[in-house]
């Protein structure tokens, strides 16, 4: 299967259903997976985001099943450091990675295996403090944060476009 998209205002109350959709995508060897769960409705404002990405059978097993991914879009998915590391390590074909509104991501490292990564977008990842990327084919990077990253090391020899942005709630820390 080429592409699988889920675009609903869902939160952690629907984890079982969302995990089943991710497992379906893995079984179909989907290349482009888009989970856009970040649409907020007033009734869901105080509820937590979906936290089960790659957790249904253990991160390593599930991420290995997403081996064929070339494009991953996560919005409103609280992916943690371990799940993201496993995903990047076990998805050698990944070219595009979007992570938006993930509050559990503190550290993103793609040191060795990110040889095919061409596009990286990180937005509203409020707890991200550590970004280390070594990607020889990375051409575009977009970072939009409300805070400063404490560790940044980007090795991307053909990087041609960088978008940096900050948004303030009170103070840019």
UniProtKB/TrEMBL annotation:
Residues 16-149 form the At1g61320/AtMIF1 LRR domain. This is At1g61320/AtMIF1 LRR domain-containing protein. It comes from Rhamnella rubrinervis. InterPro entries: At1g61320/At1g61330-like, LRR_At1g61320_AtMIF1, LRR_dom_sf. Signal peptide: none annotated.
């Amino acid at each position: 299967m080429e592409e699988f998209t889920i675009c609903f205002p869902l939160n952690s109350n629907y984890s079982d259903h969302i995990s089943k959709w991710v497992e379906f995508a893995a079984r179909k060897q989907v290349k482009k997976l888009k989970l856009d769960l970040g649409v907020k409705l007033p009734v869901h404002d105080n509820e937590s985001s979906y936290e089960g990405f790659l957790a249904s059978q253990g991160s390593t097993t599930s991420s290995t099943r997403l081996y064929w991914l070339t494009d991953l879009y996560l919005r409103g998915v609280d992916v943690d450091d371990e799940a993201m590391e496993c995903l990047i390590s076990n998805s050698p074909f990944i070219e595009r990675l979007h992570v938006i509104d993930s509050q559990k991501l503190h550290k993103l490292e793609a040191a060795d295996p990110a040889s095919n990564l061409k596009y990286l977008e990180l937005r509203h990842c409020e707890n991200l403090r550590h970004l280390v990327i070594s990607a020889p084919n990375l051409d575009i990077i977009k970072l939009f944060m409300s805070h400063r990253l404490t560790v940044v090391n980007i090795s991307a020899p053909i990087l041609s476009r960088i978008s940096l942005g900050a948004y303030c709630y009170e103070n840019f820390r």
